[in-house]
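Late entry, evening session. Most of the bench is empty. Finally got around to the prediction I had been postponing all week. Sequence below, unchanged from the version circulated by S.P.
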Amino acid sequence: MTTPASLEDIEVQLLLEAIYRYYGYDFRNYAPSSLKRRVRHFLHSEGLPTVSALQAKILHDRTCLDRLLLGLTVNTTSMFRDPSFYVAFREQVVPLLKTYPFIRIWHAGCSTGQEVYSMAILLQEEGIYHRCRVYATDTNEQVLQTARTGIFTLDKMQEYTQLYLKAGGKQSFSEYYTADYKNAIFRSSLKEHLVFAQHNLVTDGSFNEFNVILCRNVLIYFNSTLQQQVHQLFYNSLCKFGILGLGKQESIRFTPHEADYEEVAQGQKLYRRRN
């Protein structure tokens, strides 16, 4: 016997269906517990009594939808997040990349861009950034606007410096940015090979063939159906022997392509596509 859906569950399903049908954003296969928690928080911030009231508002007020998109998409990020991942990338992946004349990298779900600039710094220090094109995408145009500026709050730089050093940084981290009274403005040379663009992992297809795809701490917010869909997208977008990098709590296990990859660095969620 199935348990009847609660009124809130029904309202959330209708909300997500309305967003998809009217605006084209598809959150229907996001992990339900996390998504409902974010919807409740948004209701409180907007002073709305019910999810149905929110549905009515977003269908007639695009600015309300834009605020909701920020609330539903996950934008937690950091420079050199999980430093051991970057150490493994330097030691295990960079030697492979040095064998290519030109390198295409896709950073999917890039949020406000801190991890994109982290990778640009790493590639520059390893002497291959001039041969790279890094496509950084996100579904949310507002966070992409922040990413394009390369400007982050100065109060985070001490934390980022420690993470950079743990990640195997080879310079003084402060050389990569200039500071004003509250912001760190990263060097324009780091932007030279970055392309920021809107792309929705849920609804959009492949747009190139890549040597590396990085999608870290995004898939944990999708249900298993959507995770498998995105893994298919990544597999189709990777060249032979291409590298897939996932977040600490993510894996290729139990996906349709589990047997199509080999682990590059144990425990670091770096995988190489087999021939």
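Two things to note before I forget:
The first strand starts at residue 103 and ends at 108.
The CA atoms of residues 130 and 224 lie 38 Å apart.
Will write this up properly tomorrow.
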